[in-house]
Amino acid sequence: MPVPVPVRLHSPVKVSLDMPEPSSELLHGAPFDAGELSGLAEPRGPESLAEVVERSARDSAAVAAAIPHWQAWREAAHRIKAHAMAQLDKLLVRFEQNVTARGATVLWAEDAAEANRHVLAIAREHGAASAVKGKSMLSEQMDLNRHIEAAGVRALETDLGEFLVQLAGQRPVHVIGPSLHLSRADVARLFAEKLREPYTLEAEALTAMARRHLREEFLRAGMGITGCNFAAADTGTICLVENEGNIGLATSVPPVHVVLVGIEKIVPRLADLPVLLNLLARSCSGQKLSSYTHLIHGPAPGRKLYVILVDDGRTRVLADRPARAALFCIRCGGCLNVCPVYRRVGGWVYGWVYPGPIGSVLTPQMIGLKQAGLLPFASTLCGACAEVCPVKVDLAHQLVHLRHRAVTEPSPVRSWSDRLAWRAWAWAMSGPWRYRLAMGFVRFFLRVARRLPWHPGALGRWTRGRELPEVPSREPFRAWWRRGRGKKHDNGAA
Ligand code: SF4
Fold first, then answer.
1. Residue of 277, 389, 392, 394 best suited for mutating to test ligand 1, as the one with most atoms within 8 Å of CB
2. Could you tell me the pTM of the whole model?
3. What average pLDDT does this structure show over 460-475?
């Protein structure tokens, strides 16, 4: 069970540690067992994704290796985020006071539904029929587009990758590169089908098409919606980073700007940003710095700025002390790029908004172990993720902690079939003759299963992409050892 900690968010709304688990059509946990691994439907999907993330990981590693004080930066960033989470209640209030003093309106949302209601109310108040959006994982978590579109407000993604997956009716596969799975030919086909543009494989022509369509939308939109990379409590500053310029337009062209801020984005001081920004860009893509860094200090004259501070499960993570460091995450995507599981399966299989190792840690805590208790097991525990994490989130330890919770609290891992299988395993391993008997069964089972033309149920799903193991030798290791070879080998080695 989570360790209760005295978390008090002194906000105009009560933020409770015992919130009901959120519900949404998106929240279907990890469908590893549901035969939905065909998520990356593009023919080259998994291959191109693996190539791209591998290249990003290599670039990031090279840039990090060239900086002698890289580890000191990581340590400093870890301490900044640890301090921020320990003081979160006070920092949130301080941020609210400072950003309000600069002319912004602050709203608090306990969950995604409340945050969506706020956005819709703002759109109605200002008569906005359409909104242009910067990339925001929090808005994905809120399923914002679907909610406001159902109420008649058109939501258009303006980050190129998000624009592509929105056109394709898909979901992002990566926190930084939402459309990494799409090839140039996929994009050309998409533009021809959805935008009625001529089919071309020229990258510049494709970019120009996207730019032309998006520019018109910026000029038409009544509202811009963005996420927030960091929110500095001491100055009330909102920091946003990007490479494409779309966030600059979304925050400055429409008359109203709505900023969605997950409460973990708070940092104590504006002076904390340089180290975090240095780490973020390098860990994302190997860039020294993102092309644009926006520091927003209140609304421009004649414009409105709304800041929505969203909990939606974050205080639940904060309350679980061993897993709290997951909130340090600055969404660089580095742990996804190095993860052997993510590289193989892509982002959709993780079943919710945050994929990869950080998703396997955040999702079960945010939407509950009952729905996503399998995710902590979607890891080899190789530790590559923790090694690259710029804020030193101890991802491998957190995965182990959540595995422990998954087997001690209600979750899919505690199903009767799993418990039966583990009891049988424990029984077989508790004595030599039981082990021999069990191995006899295994040999018999494998011999029969390898001859069958098809395999039913879970076995069939498992063997769809894998070979069944060979039947173990008739002379197992123990017999070989008894015959003295092991002894001879042992003596020789000595
Ligand atoms: S957990 Fe670390 S490596 Fe993974 S996305 Fe977050 S900051 Fe990046």
1. 389
2. 0.83
3. 80
